[in-house]
Amino acid sequence: MSFSSETIVVTGGAGFIGSALVRQLLDETDAFVVNVDKLTYAGNLDSIPQAKDHRRYALERVDIGNAAEIRRVLSAYKPAAVLNLAAETHVDRSIDGPAAFIETNMVGTYTLLQETLRHWNALAPAARDKFRFIHISTDEVFGSLGPYGTFCETTAYAPNSPYSASKAASDHLVRAWRETYGLPTIITNTSNNYGPYQFPEKLIPHIIIRGLAGLSLPVYGDGLNVRDWLHVEDHARALRVVLERGKAGECYLIGGRNERSNRSVVETICDLLDQAAGSRGAPRRSLITYVADRPGHDRRYAIDPSKIERELGWRASESFESGLAKTVSWYLSNRSWWEAILARGYQAERIGTARKS
Q1: Does the active-site annotation cover 163?
Q2: Which terminus of the chain faces fewer neighbouring Cβ atoms within 10 Å, N or C?
Q3: What pLDDT was estimated at residue 350?
């Protein structure tokens, strides 16, 4: 999996999952990596420390919705693959401000597809056969599960939030560009990711940082909403396998087989912090506070990753217990990374609470 002499474009490469992929491509392959990122509030170049002055890395500060700039990038670097991880991703933000999600996740994906199609059509036949456009999506497009069952590649789409609806629409666009124009696309849908370098608005880093400060730890509703957790480094490895061996036109669901309720996740973080940083008196579980639920909060997600395990030979290496312990340790050892985000003015306030008429 060296990708020797190949150029790979990663959109959203300064984001959480994108930066994990870029780090692995720089550290573990011979690929030349072009990071296309408009560097929104959640983009952070400090998440790719090895990229500075790296001979196989280039940064293009470009919005995927800017057709002229995307055309310039593709023309200049002539990539063998494009992996689209550029997206607005926070469900709560999508409730308060859905327009940005429509603009980036839908219109931006359309623009990227159009310019990639132009690039692909100009390639020599052998390069056209080898080229891949990989679109990274979410299990949230499938809606909410009951107490039993799992999502698979044939599950019907039923998104319930502005975020998941925008991602569902982008998935459909990618499929249509494959069926209509022949663009060799692949769609991946992943479960909830966690790990190092995740922006503090997400559940796990949010709880870690508040727990370290001795602040209340808010949990939506009864805390029994279930998510299927996947360590971000496992996800990045899966994307590399899809790039290397994935079949054009296919969809692959990427999950860690790690279902946990939100309550269980928060309680486990509390226990890990008590062990690693001391409890400061009362155990941190005493800081848990149940707050009003999020509108349209899906009850349960769970992925069946059998297809990618069977056909491509990928399997998650981290259990939730091992991965979460490593994640808590990373945030304790890398305070400067997240403290810099707080110092830039990020406020960990609750958003996305009200239904809008």
Answers
A1: yes
A2: C
A3: 55
